[in-house]
Amino acid sequence: MPSSPISIDYYSDVLCVWAWVAQQRVDELQAQMQDAVALRYHCVDVFGDVAGKIATNWGERGGYEGFAQHVAHALNEYSDFTLHPDVWTRVRPASSASAHLVIKAAELAAGVSAGAALALAIRQAFFAHAQNIAQLPVLASIAANAGFGWTELQRYIDSGAAMAALMADYQGARLAGIKGSPSYVLDGGRQTLFGNVGYRVIRANVEELLNRPPDSASWC
Predict the structure, then answer these.
(1) Chain-centroid distance, C-alpha 187
(2) Hey, which of 13, 76, 110, 148 has its CA 20 to 30 A from 103?
(3) Which Gene3D superfamilies match (predicted)?
(4) Residue 115, φ and ψ in degrees, nearest 5
């Protein structure tokens, strides 16, 4: 077994319903494997321009209403997740980028785990409570309820540091060839799991890397 933990670069968009479902699997992986894995959280631009995405992908399939039905259908089999009926029907965030910016500010202020906790709170605020998480006042309220001082977060936003961290994530996702949210990149970029991947599949891939002999990354 490797002496250092297996690194997983985890890319997600806060407005992606599958990333909301995946968070439970990510938490379980960390709880079960503890120091054997090291998760590095990254934001990816999937819903940066929501209106454009809906027009392009759902313009001929019912627009926002069609997309709302798609999201509701996706969550039908997951009893642990509550979907507010106003999500995408009445509450339509313009972009995920503002939420991502606040998440990166939280990471800079209090560390990666704090940023992940705020990301989960933001997802719950949108999907379960239909709050418009594109709006900074809404994000400030969510952050406060999660134990963050808005003044501290705004310091990183105003300085440009949070924006730089967010752009590093977006650019890193493009360089890594990330196709969407959620995506798990393992083994130094040699392996990517994408989409609604079950917990057992994720764990099996991690265990394969943990049990692989050293210097066997390639047969070539």
Answers:
(1) 20
(2) 76
(3) Glutaredoxin
(4) -65, -40
The token duo for 210 is 């943990």
Please tell me what DSSP assigns to residue 196.
S
* pLDDT score of 188: 82
What six digits make up the tokens of 173? Answer: 């996702």
Q: pLDDT band at 2, cuts 50/70/90?
A: low
- The C-alpha atoms of residue 134 and residue 88 are separated, in whole angstroms, by 13
Residue 4 tokens read as 């250092």
Q: Is residue 176 scored above 70 in pLDDT?
A: yes
Task: Indicate the pTM of the whole model.
Answer: 0.91
Pairing of strands 183-186, 6-12: antiparallel
Show the domains of the chain with their CATH numbers: 6-52+93-211 (3.40.30.10)
How many whole angstroms separate alpha carbon 5 and alpha carbon 9?
A: 13
**CB-based burial label for 204 (10 Å; 0-12, 13-18, 19+):** exposed
Closest CA to 154 of 62, 163, 65: 163
Nearest by Cα to 85 from 130, 55, 25, 122: 130
27-41 as b/e: b if 16+ CB within 10 A? eebbeeeeebbebeb
Q: Which tokens go with 8?
A: 């997983």
DSSP code per residue over 90-110: TB--S-SHHHHHHHHHHHHHH
Give the tens place of pLDDT for each residue, 181-214: 999 999 888 889 998 888 889 899 888 888 876 5
- Res. 114: pLDDT tops 60: yes
Q: For residue 183, what pLDDT is reported? A: 95
> What's the pLDDT score for residue 220?
46
